[in-house]
Amino acid sequence: MDDNNTSSGAPKENAVQENDAGQITKDESSLGNMVRRLQDSMSIGKIHKFWETQPVGQFKDVGDSSLAEGPIEPPTPLSEVKQEPYNLPSAYEWTTCDMDSEETCLEVYNLLKNNYVEDDENLFRFNYSREFLGWALRPPGYFASWHIGVRAKASKKLVAFISGVPARIRVREHVVKMAEINFLCVHKKLRSKRLAPVMIKEVTRRVHLENIWQAAYTAGVVLPTPITTCQYWHRSLNPKKLIDVGFSRLGARMTMSRTIKLYKLPDSPVTPGFRKMELRDVPAVTRLLRNYMSQFSVAPDFDETDVEHWLLPKESVVDSFLVESQYTREVTDFCSFYTLPSSILGNQTYSTLKAAYSYYNVSTKTPLLQLMNDALIVAKKKDFDVFNALDVMENESFLKELKFGPGDGQLHYYLYNYRIRHALKPSELGLVLL
């Protein structure tokens, strides 16, 4: 599973008529921006050559109905998986990053904060918090050995990182154990050392040692072969700041005061029984989510342990709200978003852009449009500057109505060593990768 991923960084908004909703794309999700890093030392042609050697759907096979859906290659006997780590350049050594250690977590945080995904104009750089990293990297059943660092032997400084977490993902009717690879980051000064390909091979090796042979990942470029292609949409919550920092621009024929008025939201949620999720809600939310996700072709297979970890509110990491019937006390609806700020580079006034990313939402009694408008209201109350959403699941039904604007980048989803014969529509996908 030498999975590669790219990001187009954090592009600005794609101005559409009178909509100035801004953009920070989440193209760096799950396979951690790998192709972009590989591009430092490889041409696009070489990247495609690399992928042609991998067990992924190939362009030449598109539309070939004789190929069966499912695993492309069978698992290798564990005794045949390489037991020793891959060789690094002689000045560097492997380290396993203990994310339970405050000191190590801070090292990983600082490496990413200073060297991770930037937009093409170097205005923004993703700034995952230490709390977020602890949450993202330690789900139920995680493997500490999949949190892989590279240190300079002489200084012991952490100069590169890559991580994997286990997941159960349902593809049609089959639940498959997979890895999600993320946070591939090489120090800016070492991009010529060709560390990224070795790191990708090493995390692959360690995943295989746990008898896991499939992965799901995303990329901002087209590789062989996307299972679907999605678009990010962006809803401005603090339009003046977004315009001031160059994230959005003023729409045609728009003044700042008209723009602020256009995006104004009510002071509090309008749905009766709308409240923050609590620990006691985990069983009800799990039932709601499992029932809802069953309609999508590819979706996570969440149990109560997963829901407690991924969706129970965690300050500055993930927010979840639900609607509880005031008569039956039944939980009927659910919405959630996670927090991913970006550092604003070179701006005298602002240092951080606070972005909310739509996560999992379920509407049964409350219209989805109303539920998501309440999510925007609570995000605005929590001082988020922008609310981002992919056009996956049923999201398309509320985007335009709630004044989201389309972003200028696409996000491609891939499965490694698992073939899906026909590409899905974004609305058939029920998976959001961090």
Structure characterization notes:
This protein is an alpha+beta fold and 434 residues long. It has two domains: 34-228, Aminopeptidase; 232-415, 3-Layer(aba) Sandwich (Aminopeptidase), CATH 3.40.630.170. It has helices at 34-38, 44-52, 102-115, 130-137, 195-209, 239-244, 256-262, 282-293, 304-311, 368-381, 396-399, and strands at 92-96, 124-126, 147-152, 158-171, 174-186, 214-219, 228-236, 274-276, 298-300, 318-324, 331-339, 342-344, 352-353, 355-358, 362-363, 386-390, 405-416. Strands 1, 3, 4, 5, 6, 7, 8, 9, 10, 11, 14, 15, 16 and 17 form a 14-stranded mixed sheet that branches. A hairpin with a 7-residue loop joins strand 12 and strand 13. The longest helix has 15 residues, at 195-209. The chain is globular and about 60 Å long. Residues 1-12 and 15-44 have low confidence and may be disordered. Belongs to the NMT family.
Which SSEs are present, and which pair or pack?
Layout (H helix, E strand, L loop, with lengths): L33 H5 L5 H9 L39 E5 L5 H14 L8 E3 L3 H8 L9 E6 L5 E14 L2 E13 L8 H15 L4 E6 L8 E9 L2 H6 L11 H7 L11 E3 L5 H12 L4 E3 L3 H8 L6 E7 L6 E9 L2 E3 L7 E2 L1 E4 L3 E2 L4 H14 L4 E5 L5 H4 L5 E12 L18
Parallel strand pairs: 5-6, 14-16
Antiparallel strand pairs: 1-3, 2-12, 3-4, 4-5, 4-9, 6-17, 7-16, 7-17, 8-10, 10-11, 11-14, 11-15, 12-13
